[in-house]
Design brief:
- With 370 residues, the chain is mainly α.
- Helices cover 78% and strands 1% of the residues.
- The two termini are 50 Å apart.
Length: 370
Amino acid sequence: MCTLFLKLQLFKTLLMGQGLSALICGTAVTSQYLASVYYLNTPMLQSFINYTLLGITYTIALIFRRGDGNILQILKTKWWKYLLLGLTDVEANYAVVKAYQYTTLTSIQLLDCFIIPVLMILSWFFLKTRYRIIHYVAVCLCLAGVGAMVGADILAGQDQGSSSDILLGDGLVLVSATLYAISNMCQEYTVKNLSRVEFLGMVGLFGSIISAIQLGILEHNEVSKIQWTWEIALILAGYALCMYGFYSFMPVVIKMSSATAVNLSLLTGDLFSLFCGLFLFQYTFSGLYIVSLVVILVGFIMFNTVPTLNRALAPASDEEGCDNHAAEFDNDSTQGCVDEITCAQAEQDQIKSQVNQRQSSCVVINSVKM
């Protein structure tokens, strides 16, 4: 039963992780359509729509909450934390989209993987996550899969993007990866120790405010020049729904596994986009894409086969409350096994007790006979 439970948990995590990759693929395809077909390059507008949708649903849910989880209590004690988190998330999205104007797709695919080692380092120090050798091997395997994907792009001649200022573009990708790692680490801490609704509500609130200000400063000319048609509106709506779904379900998968595991599963998102490009943008197919997909999935399964350990953090103060609790272990994936082992040990102890009682009775009877 314990083995079956772990297999089902792993399969569920794998399936949901690939669902997130499919949503990322949807955002990439719709963005490319807007840029290549309709010459619409408004990343802040797209981000603003996403954060607004998050605010409409999750921030309003916080408004109607009662008790300590109410939005007024959250803003009173932790507003500056979520302000920094919202700023980090907005700028991470903006930097990676801006990088496409200066560097190539190959560079972005390679350097974007920088988020994984940064996230592992941040999780080690701040979340007290302890990795094992198999986890490092799995990460290396996933990165090798990305290398195979980039190699297939080069062989197929699909090194898209600009090369006007490669150094600036590569720097933007590294900045974006670092900011994403910080955002994902904070997300893992929040959803495992506080709540998913609180994280999404606060990111929606501050993200919409920050992106609206940045939209008015940087993209007001581009937005005013848009020739609105139903096709553009439909593609923008498709992008917004994919991004909204990604933000809504990513905390669920992170709570089941970890932010590092989720980012490993997202490495297949570029592959899904390439497969869609075979039909939509006439990309050239390469067998290395299949090899890359298999290698990344194998590495992801290896990473999730053995759970990571988390050392408990002591609360810093009474005011922080549950904001300072850290997960001791990945209870969602191991609690079933722990219960089963406990029951088995109880049964063994009961059997031993019965045997000892029988042995004592035999000794008494033999003493009486003598």
